[in-house]
Amino acid sequence: MELKLGEFYFNGKSSLDFGIYAKYIIPFSPPKKLRRVNIPGANGTYDYGTKNFDDIGITLECYCKNEYDRSTFREVVYWLSKKGRLYIWDDQDKYYIAEYQTEPSLTWQNLSHMNPFSLNFLCEPFAYKDDEKAPLQMGENVVKYNGTYEARPTLRLYNTSNSDIVNLSLTLVEKEENI
Q: What is the 3-state secondary structure (H, E, C) of 105-119?
């Protein structure tokens, strides 16, 4: 997918389909999921440690080049209403699993009068990359993980032959630290 400057792609549609352009604000990293407990009569908190992250917020500061009627505004609201993949122009090979959070500045008047508005998305903590396809061979197959943080793996196997697959065995091995 080739996105233009200021374009984002969400739930299967380009923002440019609606005349919407954006600059975005993304935190450097997702916030840590803190696990602390206040103990009555003790100083400070007990810290259970943090090895996980909370969701990350992404704000798109937008403007619209089109003038909108109420019907088109409803189409935009419907487009934003479901959770989906969010691609942003300057990191096109990655996407976030995002859900639009209602923002008071997104109004019919803002779109129809070309006023600036914000779109706030709540996203899973890390960016994902589109599926990589690798043909399997007989014997051991290694799938290289190029991410920067541990992620839940998704493995899809497709049988493209005309014969049944028998005696298939899958083993998931954690990434070794020194590799």
A: CCCHHHHHCCCCEEE
- Name the DSSP letter for residue 89: G
CA proximity to 8, closest of 148, 125, 108, 121: 121
- Tokens standing for 120? 């706030």
Question: What is the Cα–Cα distance from 65 to 124, expressed in whole angstroms?
Answer: 30
Let me know: does 23 contact 61? Beta carbons within 8 Å: yes
Residues in the chain, overall count: 179
Q: pLDDT tens digit string along 34-67?
A: 888 888 888 888 888 777 888 999 999 988 887 7
Contact 120, 100 (CB under 8 A): yes
CA angle 133, 136, 137 (to 5 degrees): 150
Nearest of 80, 58, 76, 59 to residue 67 by alpha carbon: 76
Output the average pLDDT for the chain.
82
Tokens for 61, please give them: 């500061």
Contacts of 162 (CB under 8 A, 6+ apart): none
For the beta carbon of residue 17, count every other beta carbon within 10 angstroms: 13
Dihedral of CA atoms 112, 118, 120, 126 in degrees, nearest 10, equals 120
